[in-house]
Each structure stands twice: as C-alpha cells, then as structure tokens.
Amino acid sequence: MMLVKHIPNQHRYKGWLRDTYSRSTFKCGIPDITCMNVNFFQSCIYKEDDVKHTGINKIFGITNGFHGEKIIGKICPTLVNSFLIGWQPSFDINRKYNNLDPNNRIDIFLVTDHNGVEERKKIAKLPLNTSTTISIINKENINNTLEYKIIFDSISISSYFHISYNTKLGYYLYPYFGGKSTPPWNMNYVLSVNVEYNGKTKYII
Fold first, then answer.
1. How confident is the model at residue 59 (pLDDT cuts 50, 70, 90)?
2. 161: closest CA among 61, 79, 89?
3. 3-class DSSP state for residue 5?
4. How distant, in Å, are the alpha carbons of 44, 166, 177 from that of 138?
5. What CATH number should be reported for the domain holding residue 45?
6. 132-139/145-152 β-pairing
7. For the chain, how long is the longest CA-to-CA vector?
C-alpha cells in the first residue's frame, strides 16, 4: 500500500505527474478484476466552500479507448468508454449551510463513460480510518457488463454497470484531486491497486 499525498496547487499525486502517461497509455483494456484497497484520514475532510469548483476526486479507473475526451467523443463516441472510482467528503444535505456530515464520512462515486455519455452515481458512504476493498469484476460474456463490490466493516455493497468494449487499447486513470480545483491543504489517504488478466495479477499501486 502507498500513502497518496495530495498537496496544494497540484491536481495529480506528485509521484505520477509524468509516469501516468509513459507507463499507462495504450497498455491494456478492461482487466478481468480491478481491486482497490483504500483508507481515508481526517485530512480529507473539507467543506464545499473550502475548495473552489469542487468536484469528484479520482481514486483509480481504467479506460477502454478514452476517458472524458470531448473532442474525440463528438467525432467517434464509441471510442470513449471508461470507469473510475471517485470520492468527496459527505456534504450535508442542506447544502446552503455548507455543513459537513457530523460523522465525517467519505462519499464514494462510480463515474462511467459509455459510448461518450458520462454518468455519475454515489455508491457508498465510508467511515474514516477504515480499510475498504473496492473490486470491479469484468463480466464480458454478459453484454459488456461489469460488477462493483465494496466491502468495509462487515458491510457488502454490489451492483452492475455497463461500458462498451470497442478496442483493446486503454490506460489507467491514477489518483487526481478535483475537477478544476486543487486541495487547500495536504490531504492523505492510503491506497493499493492491482489488476488481474487471465489469472495473472499485476500490482499497479
């Protein structure tokens, strides 16, 4: 496992500023299994107005073709397919008061591109300082279906989603803070990622 350190004025985790492209681009499509283990700390808790243009922060994802490419999506949307797991602090329902969840939890999101159409879905609410396993299982033989499973504190959450498999080309989506925003202070969490192809495991993070 590795300590991911998001620091002010940077989107990408420093260790992958350059390596993200050279190591990942066009290496693989969707693995049979993608497994993430993550543990969030108090430093990841912030209010909405602490971060300008706050967005979903990326933990990890994989593309089949491209991810979120607006130009390519307009020309050939079938080449834009991906999934990623993201996070935000669990903001209070009454957003105008800009409060935080009193239990200080982290919301987990599934973000998918399916033939150029993006969908965002909140799939879990995690406690801090708790080891959580998030698995994405490729069920390619069932209509381009993938299944996600989330396990923490003896709780198990699972469901299915779809993206198209139109190419064998793809790349990894590494940890990234914000959409347009950057962190206002150092934010740390622990993460490990491995993928499995044809029974062989590759450790990514």
1. very high
2. 61
3. strand
4. 30, 14, 26
5. 2.60.120
6. antiparallel
7. 50
Number of domains forming the structure of the chain: 1
Average pLDDT value for residue range 34-60: 88
Amino acid at site 136 = I
pLDDT, tens only, 150-179? 998 878 888 988 877 777 777 888 898 877
Range of the domain at 61: 2-203
- For the stretch 117-143, pLDDT in tens is 889 999 999 999 999 999 999 876 666
pTM of the model: 0.86
Query: Measuring CA to CA, which residue among 75, 69, 83 is closest to residue 29?
Result: 83
Q: Do the beta carbons of residue 136 and residue 83 sit within 8 Å?
A: yes
Helix (H) or strand (E) holding 22: helix 19-24
pLDDT digits (tens, 9 = 90+) for 79-110: 788 889 999 998 865 555 556 777 789 999 99
**DSSP codes of every residue in 90-129:** -B-SSGGGT-B-TT-EEEEEEEEEETTEEEEEEEEEEETT
Half-sphere exposure of 123 (CA within 13 A, CB side): 27
SS3 155: strand
